[in-house]
Amino acid sequence: MHTIEFVKLSLIGLITGILNGLFGSGGGTIVVPALNLIMKAEVHKCHATAIAVILPLTVVSSFIYIFNGITDWPLTIKVGLGSVVGGCIGALLLNKIKSTLLKKLFGIFMIAAAVRMWFN
Description:
Blueprint: H1 3-23, H2 27-37, H3 43-67, H4 73-94, H5 99-119
Helix pairs in contact: 1-2, 2-3
């Protein structure tokens, strides 16, 4: 790997980590567009990489949240169960969706989330 690629990927990771720790998101919202636009990675690989990056990122952030006593366990368990099922379904569907449609669906999701956050 070239030094410039390493620096770019490290910066993407750093920004992702900061945003995940601060907002509870970052895996998909930062990694997917950054890998696709900056690193020119194929969109399916961007989504799969984002999911893989989320695991260590979430474990570390979760320990900090738990240590500081800000985790709502009943809520976490309920949402977690649904998330595991949904994650399995989404992972199975990923390779069945064409890259162009996947990019559009992801863009729509990001815009809808932004609008919802803005007006909430």
